[in-house]
């Protein structure tokens, strides 16, 4: 029993060193900063597009749920300033978002997807071989698909209390599972995040990967991100004072720091997958060499 933690450390230490070495050699912090800035620039146009799409589909009442769906898992010190500004933007009347301005909105938002493509291509040592125009079209498709997914989930969140009340009226015993119901409802955020990360790892960089090959990095990103968001909330509440340094820009700078750390975790997840894939390749080559050596060795008569 005592040796098991030591064995685990001995296995994880070389992998951790390899992941950090890869992250540094691929200029991980610089790429993370690029991803963070692209995400900050894209989040407002993206939410405008999502809410306009929701209104177009007859689900305009779900707009508030879409904002909550995105920001509820963020630290309050980061989500608060952004959410208030998002509310101002979304309540401003505008026309033609889904007609005249749709291409511009998709273009600006897809730039964030392109930054993720660059990060993943470096991490996997497999940049995309697609033409620029095809890559951009794929990024726009990602944005549109993500927007539609958010609308569907937001509608589900809006309708769930109605469905739950109807179900409990017929089966009063279900009230005992109300807490579990709420947890499951908001766990959808994690499911949506996991699906989006998995799709990004599979389709954005060059090369081919299987779902099970990218799951370790996706799970790492989600688990560490959720834990880190909690710790960052504590840090903002008790230790950080960005206002003393950045004055009126404190809210924006807090968001940039958080997004930068989130992008770094995303890249580290890809580096973990790449490091594990390299180890599997080495083991497969060693196994093939040993098999070949055993076949070529002389056999006793």
TrEMBL record:
Membrane topology reported for the UniProt record: Multi-pass membrane protein
A Pfam family of the record is Virul_fac_BrkB
Per UniProt, which keywords does this protein have?
Answer: Cell membrane, Membrane, Transmembrane, Transmembrane helix
Q: Where is it mostly found?
A: membrane
Tell me the leader sequence span: none
Location(s), subcellular: Cell membrane
Q: Work out whether the entry's keyword set contains Transmembrane helix.
A: yes
Reading the lineage from the top rank, the first entry is: Bacteria
Identify the InterPro entries for this entry: Virul_fac_BrkB
Give me the segments passing through the membrane.
31-57, 97-120, 141-163, 183-204, 213-240, 246-270
GO cellular-component term (any): plasma membrane
The reply to whether Magnesium figures as a keyword in the UniProt entry is: no
Protein name as catalogued: YihY/virulence factor BrkB family protein
Report the source organism: Hansschlegelia zhihuaiae
